[in-house]
Amino acid sequence: MESVLLFCGSSSILQFPLRNGGSIGRFSFTGSSIIGLANEISTTGHGPVVRGLVHLPGEKLFVLLFGNIDLDFMYYRQCCVKGAADIDAHFTRCISAYNRFLESLLKEASRSGYPVRVCVLSPQLTPIRDSVFAEVTAKHARVPEDAVQALGERMDVSHRMRLSRTQAFNARLEREILPDDRIRVFRIDQDMVDANGALHERFYPPNIRDHHANIHETLKCWRVALSHDVPIFRSFRPKAPQDAELAAVG
Description:
- Mean pLDDT is 93; it is low at 244-250.
- This protein has a five-stranded parallel β-sheet with strand order 2-1-3-4-5, with no helix packed on it.
- By secondary structure, the chain is an alpha/beta fold.
- It is 44% helix and 11% strand.
């Protein structure tokens, strides 16, 4: 019997289309964070909801996509409110929360008697350009726009540096995720930037104030990245060199 496929995340999870409705579920929690996953009284309540899904009958494959709220808004809110925020400490807090949640998810799965596997998708890179950074960040971080503008006097908030921070977080997440054979981490951030560390133009959304990267382009990357682990994406597996040669001859 094929695993029940469960896509869970903040609003970016909506890029994954629903198919074969009976065996696939998609759960989007707008404004949800990694830190909130491990918080039982989080305002979005996403941690307990996702954990409760382990009790659905049958084997489950979770695909989790959280983190952009933590990196693109919560961190800069802390910088505005506190005057400064240690980025490494913020990363540590996020990864610790993720691991606590994953540990609780696996324990709950053991109690349910149903096998579980987890694909942790690292946060995507932000498409928020410098020209609208203060406006968009102020709106979602719930701080005054002039407070965000003032950050530029104390720290580097250029788009390239913001991209670099997310990539640094993803590298740590890859190294420090809860060690368990049932958990794998996936990334597409390396595919989203050019050799100079700038976001490829195709990942910018049509709306300059949209904080989600172009979903058509990110989905293309995720399909390939997940093609060996998520059954519905098997057809997107890159061909082995010898297979490509045979196809060309055929």
